[in-house]
Design a protein that fits this description.
single chain, about 600 residues, alpha/beta, nine-stranded parallel β-sheet, six-stranded antiparallel β-sheet, 8 helices, binds alpha-D-glucopyranuronic acid
Length: about 600
C-alpha cells in the first residue's frame, strides 16, 4: 500500500514528528470555483478502533459465498457533514474514538487542472484515503487543511474514506484536560477545489503597520508558471495595481489609497480582486490599523476600550458544535446585544463564518490557538504541532481586518523552561507571519494577597498586551473591598486586559432581596459582576474586559447534578437563551465604557 502522499509544508516536520500533516499550500476557498461536499455521509462507528486492522479503507466486498467482511458502509448509519458526531446520536454523546466516513464523488479528469480536497476542520486526527490509498493526515481540530488529489483521482467514481478520531492525546494541542466539550467529527465544510496548474496560493492585502492609507502586502503564486502579471483591483476606489511575481511566485504589493477605514461603528469592507494570468480570486476586505501606543490600544489612531465577551464554538440551543453562518449570527447577535465591540473566540480558532460575520457586524475578533493549561511542552513534537496550528490559523484569517489579536496560549503553567522556550519561539514566529496584529498570552498566575494583585509572567515581556484571567468572587474570595483592590505590575506601561472573570448561576435559581444569595444563584453571579466592575475602576492601564462568558456551554467535567449537569453555567445567558441578572449589569457597564464619550 503506497502510504501518505506528502507535499510542501509538512516535509521538515515529518522527520521529527512522526505525525504527518500533509498539506500543500493553503488555498483560500472564498471566491473560488469549488464543489461543496456537505451532506449526509455513510459512516462506520468504530468504538474499538478495529477498523485499522480490518483495513476499512479498502472497502472489501464479498465475492464468493464463503467471503464475509465484518464491516460495510452500505446499510449502515449516516452522519451529517459538517457536524459533530456526538450530538447526532445519543449513544455517541460522550464518545471519544474513531468514526469512519465515506464520500463518493464523480469526477472528470481535466489535464490543465489541479484538484484539492479542503476541510474547514476535523476534530481531532483525520486520516484521508482515496480509492483505497492513504493520501494524507492532519492533526488539530480547529484549523483548515487540504490535500492535493490531482494525481490520485480517476475519471468517474472516486471514493473518499475519512478516518476521524477525537481521542485526547497527552502530546496533543490541547492536551488531555480542557473545560469544553470534545465534539468529534468532520465539524466544518468540505470542498473540492479545482485550480489552473498555476494558481494564487496565498495573499495578504492589508494596511502597513501604523499606516491608515498604505497597503503593504504580497501575492504568492503556486505551480509551474510562477512568474506572472499580478493585478490587485479595488473597483470602488478605481484601484488597479499591477506587478509581476518573481520566479518563486512572490509579488510584493504596495500602494496608497484613501480608504474608508473599518471601525466597529462602520465596518466597511471592499470588494478586492486579485488576478494573475491563470487565476482570479475575489475577497471582501476591510482596512484598519491596530496598534499599541504607550499603555493604550489604538484603532486607526483613536484610543479604544475593548468591550469583549468570551464565546465557545457551540450552539447551546442545539447542544452541538456550531459550524454555520446561522450559528454565528445567533452567538454574535447576543454579543452585539450585550454592547460588545469585540469577541474572544475561546480557546481555539472558530469557523470562518464566525470570523467573517463578526467582521461584517463590526466586532473585533480575538483568535486563539488551543495551547491550553496543561501542555506537554517537553515533548519535541508539541511545539511543532503548535506551529502548524498557528500557521493554519494565520493563513486562513490574515486578510480579516476584524481579527486584531493573535492569542498564543491560555493559562499555561508558568515558569517551566520548556514552556517559556516554546512560547517565546512561537511568539517570534507569529510576528514573522504577520506583523500587523497584536500578540498576547493569557495568564492566571498573578498573586492575590491582602487584596493586592501581583502580576508577572516572563511571557508578558514578549506580548503586546497583558491578558489575565481572575475569578475573584467565585474560585477566590474577595480579600477586601473591590474598590480598594491594589494592582502591582512588573511591566508598568503595557495595556492590561481582563480576559476572563465571572461565576456560575443556574438561570431561574433566585433569592429574594432580603435573603443572602448563595452560590449558583443569579443574584450571587450578579454580585460578582457588580464587584468586578467596581474593581475595574482601579486597574491601571485597563484597555478592556471580557466576561467568562456569553452563554452556558457543555463541559463534561461540570457534574453538579442540579446546577450544572454537564454545563459550565458561567454564561450571562442560559443554554435556552434566557438573560441572567448579571447580563444587565454587564450591559450597563459597556454602555458606560466608551472612550469617545469621556
Ligand atoms: C479558566 C479557563 C476557561 C474555563 C474557566 C472556568 O480560566 O480559561 O477555559 O472554562 O476558567 O473555570 O470556567
Amino acid at each position: 500500500m503506497k502510504h501518505c502522499k506528502l507535499i510542501a509544508i509538512g516535509v521538515a516536520f515529518l522527520a521529527i514528528s512522526g505525525w504527518v500533516n500533509s498539506q500543500s499550500a493553503m488555498i483560500n476557498i472564498s471566491g473560488r470555483n469549488t464543489t461543496c461536499l456537505n451532506g449526509e455521509w455513510p459512516v462506520i462507528i468504530d468504538p474499538t478502533g478495529i477498523g485499522d486492522w480490518r483495513q476499512v479503507w479498502l472497502e472489501k466486498k464479498p465475492v464468493k459465498k464463503t467471503d464475509f467482511f465484518e464491516y460495510s458502509f452500505e446499510g449502515g448509519p449516516g452522519m451529517k457533514v459538517p457536524g459533530d458526531f456526538n450530538s447526532q446520536k445519543p449513544e455517541l454523546t460522550y464518545f471519544e474514538g474513531t468514526v469512519w466516513y465515506k464520500k463518493v464523488v464523480f469526477l472528470k479528469i481535466e489535464p490543465e487542472k489541479r484538484v484539492f480536497i479542503h476541510f474547514g476542520a476535523v476534530n481531532y486526527v483525520a486520516d484521508i484515503y482515496l480509492n483505497g490509498e492513504h493520501i494524507g493526515s492532519h492533526e488539530g481540530g480547529f484549523t483548515p487543511f487540504q490535500i492535493e488529489i490531482t494525481k490520485d483521482i480517476r475519471a468517474g467514481e472516486n471514493s473518499f474514506i475519512i478516518k476521524v478520531n477525537n481521542q485526547r492525546l497527552n502530546d496533543g494541542v490541547p492536551g488531555l484536560g480542557y473545560d469544553w466539550f470534545n465534539y468529534g467529527g468532520i465539524t466544518r465544510d468540505v470542498h473540492l477545489i479545482e485550480t489552473h496548474k498555476a494558481f494564487i496560493e496565498d495573499y495578504q492585502i492589508q494596511l502597513q503597520k501604523h499606516s491608515n492609507n498604505t497597503i503593504f502586502g504580497w501575492v504568492k503564486m503556486n505551480g509551474d508558471h510562477k512568474s506572472q502579471t499580478i493585478r490587485v483591483k479595488i473597483p470602488e476606489l478605481k484601484i488597479d495595481y499591477k506587478t509581476i511575481s518573481d520566479n518563486e511566485g512572490f509579488a510584493e504589493v504596495r500602494f496608497k489609497a484613501d480608504f474608508q477605514l473599518w471601525t466597529p461603528e462602520a465596518p466597511k469592507l471592499y470588494n478586492v480582486i486579485i488576478q494573475s494570468e491563470s487565476d482570479t480570486i475575489a475577497d471582501e476586505i476591510g482596512f484598519r490599523n491596530i496598534e499599541v501606543i504607550g499603555n493604550g490600544i489604538f484603532l486607526n489612531g483613536k484610543r479604544i476600550f475593548l468591550k469583549g465577551v468570551n464565546i465557545h464554538e457551540e450552539n447551546p440551543i442545539k447542544a452541538s458544535r456550531a459550524y454555520s453562518e446561522e450559528d454565528a449570527r445567533l452567538l454574535l447577535g447576543w454579543a452585539k446585544d450585550l454592547g460588545c465591540n469585540m469577541v474572544r473566540l475561546a480557546h481555539y480558532p472558530h469557523n470562518e463564518y464566525m470570523v467573517k460575520s463578526a467582521e461584517k457586524m463590526g466586532m473585533m475578533v480575538w483568535n486563539e490557538i488551543p495551547v491550553y493549561q496543561h501542555i506537554e511542552f517537553s515533548d519535541p513534537d508539541v511545539p511543532l504541532k503548535m506551529e502548524i496550528m498557528l500557521k493554519e490559523m494565520v493563513r486562513r484569517d490574515r486578510n480579516r481586518c476584524g481579527v486584531i489579536i493573535w492569542s498564543l496560549s491560555n493559562e499555561t503553567y508558568n515558569f517551566t523552561p520548556n514552556r517559556d522556550k516554546a512560547l517565546i519561539e512561537l511568539t517570534k514566529n507569529v510576528k514573522n507571519l504577520d506583523s500587523t496584529r497584536l500578540i498576547t498570552h493569557v495568564m492566571n498566575s498573578q498573586g492575590y494577597e491582602n487584596n493586592t494583585f501581583n502580576v508577572w509572567d516572563p511571557l508578558y515581556s514578549h506580548a503586546d498586551i497583558i491578558s489575565l484571567n481572575e475569578y475573584v468572587g467565585w474560585y477566590v474570595p474577595w480579600q477586601g473591598n473591590p474598590t480598594d483592590t491594589q494592582w502591582k505590575f512588573a511591566l508598568a506601561n503595557k495595556p492590561v486586559f481582563i480576559s476572563e472573570f465571572g461565576g456560575e448561576a443556574l438561570y431561574g435559581s433566585n433569592y429574594g432581596p432580603k435573603d443572602e444569595a448563595a452560590y449558583w444563584s443569579e443574584e450571587y453571579q450578579e454580585q460578582i459582576y457588580t464587584d468586578q466592575i467596581a474593581m475595574f475602576e482601579k486597574v491601571p492601564n485597563l484597555c478592556g474586559v471580557c466576561p467568562w462568558l456569553l452563554v452556558d456551554y457543555r463541559s463534561p467535567g461540570r457534574m453538579h447534578p442540579v446546577f450544572q449537569n454537564g454545563w459550565n453555567r458561567k454564561g450571562l445567558i442560559s443554554d435556552k437563551g434566557e438573560k441572567k441578572k448579571a447580563w444587565y449589569v454587564m450591559k450597563q457597564y459597556f454602555n458606560r465604557m466608551n472612550y469617545e464619550k469621556q
